[in-house]
Specification:
The protein has helices spanning 22-31, 86-98, 124-138, 152-164, 200-208, 223-234, and strands spanning 4-6, 11-13, 16-19, 38-43, 48-56, 61-69, 77-82, 103-107, 145-149, 168-172, 178-179, 188-192, 212-215. It is an alpha/beta fold and 238 residues long. It has 2 domains: 4-69, Hypothetical PUA domain-like, domain 1 (Ribosomal Protein L25, Chain P, Beta Barrel); 77-234, SPOUT methyltransferase, trefoil knot domain (Alpha/beta knot, 3-Layer(aba) Sandwich). A 7-stranded parallel beta sheet has the order 9-8-7-12-10-13-11, sandwiched between helices. Strands 1-4-5-6-3-2 form a 6-stranded mixed beta sheet. Helix 2 (86-98) crosses helix 3. The radius of gyration is 20 Å and the shape is elongated.
Amino acid sequence: MNLILLHPDDFTQPDHAILRDRRFHHIRQVQQPTLGQWMKVGVLNGQIGRAQVMALDDKHIELAVQLEREPPAPLPLTMIMALPRPKMLKRTLETVSAMGVKQLYLINSYRVDKSFWSSPLLSPEKINEHLTLGLEQAGDTLMPEVHLRKRFKPFVEDELPAIAANSRALVAHPYEAALCPDASSEQTTLAVGPEGGFIAYEVEKLIEAGFQAVHIGERILRVENAVPVLLARLFPVV
């Protein structure tokens, strides 16, 4: 935890917060602060600063909070991702959150098992839990928005053209594709398929929606590895 992410209801006064949950136990067991020590904090969807430990016991920690600056700038990116299997979904949510993605669409695909959509990890509480872990890792406060779309064709035909309008629209595809373009700060919409990739029909539909197929080399990577590689290639600072 490189940043303690505070919520508005943690505050007992405008500049004082009390923690008793997971964050408190992590601070006490891992960081082991002493009275008067300063720690990095941020307010959810707000500013970043520091907090001084004012009180600490077995049940809570009290912090005096000073907010000083804005969080890191988001990536100029909307990510479209075929729903990963549950074990991979947890890691992927944390990765995209840590790397500055703020708009994520999880969509269906031919190679997405139907059972994935019934996973308890898709509950808003679980999604936010893993997004929060990514923010804490990166020292960010801006919570990403996650949208679920269970039908591929209606989403690609009816919604995606407007989502991708006026952006660099790319679909990661390892076959018969152009080399991934150079890093740029321009607004981008990136589609990433499931394990095994989008099927040919799905790639065709994405191309019809204005996307260009690109690859990142001869090596075929797992989604959890391909995503950070793609983001590092596409943007000058991640």
